[in-house]
Queue: 2 jobs
Job 1
Amino acid sequence: MKQLPPIAHLVSPFLIFQILLVPTVTAQPQPQDGGALYQAHACASCHGKNGLQPISPDYPMLGGQNARYLLRQMIDIRDGTRTNALAATMRASVGKVSDEDFAIIAEWLSRK
Ligand code: HEC
C-alpha cells in the first residue's frame, strides 16, 4: 500500500478508495485483486506467471517493474499511442481493459 501515492494522479480517487478498502472488508479473493484481474484478462497467456515467464524472449518481463511505468505502457499499448515492435500483438487482446483494472494489475505486478 505504501506504493499507492505515486500513481494516485493517474487513477480516480474512487479507485484508490476501493484499493484501500478491499483488504479490510475480507481476505477472500476479490475482483479488485490484481492477480485475479491478471488472470481474467489473459495477461498470463503471454507474460506468464507473475509476469515473470513470458512465452517468448521477444516478450517483456513485467514483475518487479515500477507500477507507474507499467500502467503508462498498458494504456499506451491499448490506445495505440505505443506502436513499436510487438505492441500490436498485445493490443488485440487488451482493447477493452479499463484504466482501473490496468492500475490494479500494475500495482500487483510491481510487487512481484
Ligand atoms: C497476445 C499476447 C499478450 C497479451 C495477452 C498481453 N500482452 Fe502485454 N505485451 C505483449 C507483448 C508482445 C509486449 C511487448 C510489446 C513490444 O514489443 O513493444 C507486451 C508489453 C507489455 C507491457 C510493456 C512492458 C514494458 O516493459 O514496456 C506491459 C506493461 C504489458 N504488456 C502488460 C500486459 C497486461 C497487464 C496484459 C493483460 C491485461 C497484457 N500485457 C496482455 C503481449 C501480450
Note: Residues 41-43, 45-47, 59-60, 62, 70, 73-74, 77, 84-87, 89-90, 93-94, 97, 105 surround heme C (CB under 6 Å).
Job 2
Amino acid sequence: MPVFTKYAQFYDTYYAQKNYEAEAGFVLDVAGRFGPPPGSVLDMGCGTGRHITEFLKRGLRCEGFDQSSGMLDQACQRLAGQEVRLSQANLTTFHSAKTYDLVVSLFAVIGYLVRNSDLIAGFRTARRHLNPGGVFVFDGWFGPAVLDQRPEYRRHEYRRDGELVVREATPTLDLCRQTVTVQYDLEISNDGRVLQHISEEHCMRLMFVQEIALAAEAAGLEIVHCCPFMEPDGQPNSKTWNVCFVARSITKDDSAATERHLPVDGIEWIQQGDQVLALIIRADYEPVKTQFISPPTYKQQIGFVVHPKGGAIIPHVHHELVRNLIGTSEVLLIRRGSCCIDFYLQDKSFHCTKELNVGDTVALVSGGHGFRMREDTVFLEIKQGPYIGEDEKERFAATR
Ligand SMILES: C[S@@+](CC[C@H](N)C(=O)[O-])C[C@H]1O[C@@H](n2cnc3c(N)ncnc32)[C@H](O)[C@@H]1O
C-alpha cells in the first residue's frame, strides 16, 4: 500500500511546530563527533524538504529524494531557486553519481523498511553514497520504549486556510513482526461541512539495537553511536520513543578473501571443486582500493581501479609482447534488463543458475553457459580477439 499519497498534502500542517532548525543542529553535532564536519548531505526520504532548508542555511551542498510525489512536490516548491537536486526514488534502489560527507534519513523514514531485505538495501544505499569517513544518521521508533509504553490512539485538530483538519491515529502493535501499523484518518471540513476524508495505513518496524547493528553490518556499515533523538549524550531507555543511530562504513580489505575465491559481500564465485566456472561481481559491490578480483593466472584480468579526486594515472604504452592463451573467456556487463544464466561444467552437465540484473558483471572463466532473458536485456560483452567466427564455440542442448 503506498503511503504519503493524499495524506502528504497536510503533512506540514501536522508538523508545523516541529523544530527542524534544532534537529538539523543536533544531526550536524552528532555527525561531527564521528566524522569530519560535513560539507555535503544526502537526505534519504527528504519529505517536504524542511531539513534540507536548514542544511542549506548552514552552507551544506544538498541532495534529497523521496518516494512520494506529494511530499516531493512540496519540497520542490519550498526549495525552488536553491541549488539542490531532488528526485523521486526509493531508498532500496536510489543511485546518485555523487557521494556525501553526511547521509541522513530523519523522522522514522528507515522504519518504513519493514522487510529485512529492504532494510539492508536501504542501508546499502546510504553506504554507497558516503564519502570516505562520512557518517549516516537516522532515527526511528525504539522497540523497548514502544513495548513499555504502548502506542495509543490519538486525535488532533489543526487549522489550515480556514479549514479544520482532524487527524486520528489508531495504532496496532504486532509483537511477532515487531511493527506498529498506524491507521491515519483525516477529515477536512469548512464551517462544519465535510470536504474530504483521507485514510492511509503506515506500517513501521520497531528498532532494536542488536538487530539494527546486524542489518547495518550486512550492508557494510557499523553503528558507532546510539542515543535518544535530540540528546546526543543520552542513553536510550524504556522511555526513549525516538532513537537515533550514527553509522559509518566498515572499511574492509577484500583481497585476502578474493585470493582464496571466498565469497565476499557482492562477489560470488561459481565453482565445482577447484574448477572456477565464473565470478559474478554484483552491482552494489563497492571496491575500497585498486584491486584485481581475478587471480593473475586468468587469461582475462578483471578488477577495480580506485583513485581519489585529483589522482592520476601516468601515461603509458603496453609492450608488444606475445601471450599464449588457450580457449576464450568473456566478461559481460548487464547494461539493461535482467536474465538468468545457466552454468554448465566442461562435460556439458548442468551446474547451477544465477540471476543477473542491471549493473552486475559476470566473468565466464571455464565450462559452458546459456542465458534466458527475463526482460529485454542488453549486455556489454568483452572477450579476446581476434574473432574467429562460430568455430570458437560448440552449441549444445540445455539440460537444466
Ligand atoms: C515521516 S516522513 C519524514 C519526512 C522528512 N524526513 C521529515 O523529517 O519531515 C517519512 C518519509 O519517508 C518517505 N519514505 C518512506 N518509505 C520510503 C522509501 N522506501 N523510499 C523513499 N522514501 C520513503 C515518505 O514518503 C515520507 O516522505
Note: Helices lie at 11-14, 20-32, 50-57, 69-78, 116-128, 143-149, 209-218, 255-259.
